[in-house]
Amino acid sequence: MTPVLLLLVAGAATPVLTALALVALRRPSRLVAAAGSGAGAGLTALAAALIDADVFDVGQVISSPLQVDAVAATLAPALGVVSLAALLALPERARTLASVGSALVLQGLSTALLLVGHLPLLLALEVLKIATVLWALRGGRTGRIAALTLAPSAIGMTAVTLLLVATDGAAAPLSTHVATLSEHPAWLLLLGASALMRLGIPPAHGWLVTAFEELEPSQVLPLAVPASALVILVRLVEPALAALGATAHAPVVIGALLLALLAQGLAFVQTSMRRALGFSVVAGLCVLLVGVVDPDPIGRVGGVAHWGAWVVATGGFSLAVGAASSRLGTIDLRKHHALGERAPRLGALFVLLGFATAAGPGTVDFVGADLMLHGSLGHHWPQMALLLMVMGLQGLNVLRWFFRIFYGPAPMFADPRERMELLPRERLALLMVLGLLFVGGLVPSALPVLGASVEP
Amino acid sequence: MNALWLPFLVALGLPFGAWLLLGLRLLLVLAPPSEALIQRLTATVFSISTVAFVIGVVGLLLSGAPLPDLPLGALVALPRYHIALGLHIDGLSLGLLGLTFPLAGLVAAFSARYLHREPGFSRFFFLLMMLTVGLELIAAGEGLDLLFAGWELVGLSSALLIAFFHRRQQPLDHGLRAYATYRAVDVALLLAVVLSHHLVGSVSVHQIDAWIGGPSGLTTLVGVLVVIGAMGKSGSVPFSGWVPRAMEGPTPSSAIFYGALSIHLGPFLLLRMWPILESAPAARALMGVVGLLTALHGSMVGRAQHDIKGTLAYASLAQVGLMFIELSLGFTELATLHLFGHAVLRANQLLRAPSVLSERDELLDALGAQRPSRGQHIERTLPAPLRRGLYKLALERWYLDDLLDRGLVGPVVRGLEALNRLDQRVSAALSGPPGDEEAAAQRSAPRAEAPVRPGPSPHAAAGVRS
């Protein structure tokens, strides 16, 4: 096993081992959890730094059943950083063994999913992840809705996997399964639909939005934001679609963009900030879909870069929303809360991270979005217009939310001298994410996917 | 690197550095910097930038040759595509930069006194620097990608400055409206940037300048999109609603944005993309129609304004409308002169606007009598019913905002709200019996644990452990 693979496997295993240690200690120690998560993130970042960009390519399998490519090398560190930030920013009242443990396990599983190039193992990890998500959401409204959505998704993915294994054999490489899928459009449709349900693409978005409404954003992040089901789309569905011809992508792209626009519109009319955030995340997931299924190599590179940037930006922004709601309680967007005078730094980070989610200039997502626009989207201006409208609406939403939460007439009885500024751990989490976004924006070629050669 | 670039690099780099420095200071250190420090910083930066710029211009004039582009590397370099970074300075850039540095410096000096002891003093200067950096990118960016990045920075700083006095509801609503307009039309601009790549083969300003093409479907599409992008920033009809609302911001920002610089970015963009527009008769026709309507709108509505800043805002709109007409007819040099002359005049008028009443009183004292009635020639020639109708039309700003709100935004928002209610009903049906909702609502309600209220120190919060 190459050193890079070793580092990535260690990066995936460390958070899981940390979770087990915490269970053994029966203490949800934030310090230990952060150390484990940070170590995982650090190992994956080190692996990404060591990757020889000339050797690794998007989709290239190195050493079955494990593989490393530009997708894994780009996403793994991003997941690690967001997981670490989520643990640091987790409010005290939500810091339980269950929430900390499940966050660490999900970090490990999400990283592992990126490294697997063997179908049964891929499926096993995804089903395990779904089980972890359902366990974390057990009880309450969210758990019920999630069960109704994620369980069929797991069943669908399992069914297709069994069919493929029966046809091609358990040890067959992914490329063989891709060819089989392209010969069986019904299986491809089932697998794709299952993956989309897992992601939370509308109409299967209910559990995601409700989760943001009920739980702390830092608890929901590990469940949803890594968007690991995209791995199934990248490794299996997209190549099979490509084999069917370029026109096969068009309905997916147009559908995803229309759904993204609808989700952003729904985010605009929400009265609860948490629900609005949920719909914003759903819209972001739809846009991710557009990037990773692009038949054009430039667009696909942009899609993967956008995926990594979105994970970090959305993670950071969700944490900022969480910090604001831990100070204000339920944030009603029909009125102003004037938090800015009491927490100016939180306000500044909120708006900066928010605009990072809208591909603001200077952030790494600006580069990702630019590449997506110069991919196959660039030849279809109506689709381009839809994508730009989604991003434009995200920026508008962010500013509107900022004005409602941080500006406006001060609520009655609110003392403007009262300080509600970020705690040091919250500040560290948000600044870490922000720094990564802007440093990545200045030196985007450091991202493995942008340093790797593009497929011919 | 050509040595002539050195003074320009100093001129461009200093505001950028100051912006970053101020931003980091505000983000990382809780106590805002002192007014004196900010004053000294901005005065130094703008003074040196202006002097360096002048030295650069003199050097260019003496050399007699155009300045070659300065490549600054590539943001991304893939085998088949790269995002290049670079600087490009031509006559148009020099004009905009020549306005930016001294005007921004003057406004900074004015604001140091105007906003003395005002809450948000440091925020204002951060946003002013942000505007300057945005204008630098628009003026001197080598590629349309950089131009668009600058465009976004200008738009965001504009919206945040309109909402500067954030303790009142109205500035926030107006800032949001302005930003919504920008975001909507920026879709057109970014589409134009991407499609230019297909048309010209590059997004480089240099290559666009050198492009020679004929009319085609793509040329027309790019041209029309550029015009729409320009219309938003310039407040042309039907996107004019935000301009008078933008006067909510501090007077110095109104002067620099809506008098001098930001509002003229529309014509600037049209001049920058002129080689493409020249081959797009449909786009030029659109320019002409929009310009005519905007000039009429600005003149008419300006006459019904009751405050000086509103009057000046509409006067600016009218002049920008005329610039659109000049460009549609191909008079690029006239439009350029008009642009820069108007920018200086209007900035001066807006900066003097707060003193207009006292100046009027001084004039009346000097005259010793009422001023003779002037103007209103057009109004006097119209029959009274028509005059009343037009006055109402002017007061209502041609009902453009109503049409937009009731005809477009309102129905869309109502549709989305209906969809949202449906979504909530489906979620409620899927999530189980109503009793569970109460438990879930309790989980999402403000907690018994107090939010962080650290008192004198962030670490002294009761019951909150770090």
Give a structural overview.
The complex is a heterodimer of chains A (456) and B (466). Chain A is mainly α and 456 residues long. Chain A is 73% helix and 0% strand. Chain A has 19 helices and no strands. Chain A has helices spanning 3-25, 30-50, 70-89, 97-115, 119-136, 140-168, 174-183, 185-199, 206-214, 217-224, 229-244, 249-268, 273-292, 297-328, 344-357, 364-373, 381-406, 424-442, 448-451. In chain A, helix 3 packs antiparallel against helix 18. Chain A is globular. The model of chain A has no long low-confidence stretch (mean pLDDT 87). By secondary structure, chain B is mostly helical. Chain B contains 20 helices and two strands. Chain B has helices at 5-28, 35-63, 91-114, 121-140, 144-162, 169-200, 205-210, 217-234, 242-245, 251-260, 265-272, 274-277, 281-302, 308-328, 332-352, 356-367, 377-381, 384-395, 400-431, 434-444, and strands spanning 70-78, 81-87. In chain B, strand 1 and strand 2 form a beta hairpin. The longest helix of chain B is centred in the middle third of the chain and has 32 residues, at 169-200. Chain B is globular. Residues 434-466 of chain B have low confidence and may be disordered. Chains A and B meet through helix 6, helix 9, helix 12, helix 14 and helix 15 of A and helix 1, strand 1, helix 5, helix 6 and helix 19 of B.
Give a quick set of tags describing it.
heterodimer; A: about 450 residues; mainly alpha; 19 helices; B: about 475 residues; 20 helices; 2 strands; about 5% strand; disordered C terminus
The H/E string of chain A reads: HHHHHHHHHHHHHHHHHHH
What is the global morphology of chain A?
A: globular
Give the N-terminus to C-terminus distance of chain A in angstroms: 28 Å
Helix content of chain B: over 70%
Sequence stretches where pLDDT stays below 50 over 5 or more residues of chain A: none
- Major beta sheet summary of chain A: none
* Rg of Cα set of chain B: 25 Å
Mean pLDDT across all residues of chain B, rounded?
A: 85
The overall strand count of chain A is 0
H and E string of chain B: HHEEHHHHHHHHHHHHHHHHHH
Which spans of chain B of ≥5 residues are poorly predicted at pLDDT below 50? 434-466
Coarse morphology of chain B:
globular
Distance between the termini of chain B: 52 Å
Number of strands of chain B: 2
Work out the radius of gyration of chain A.
21 Å
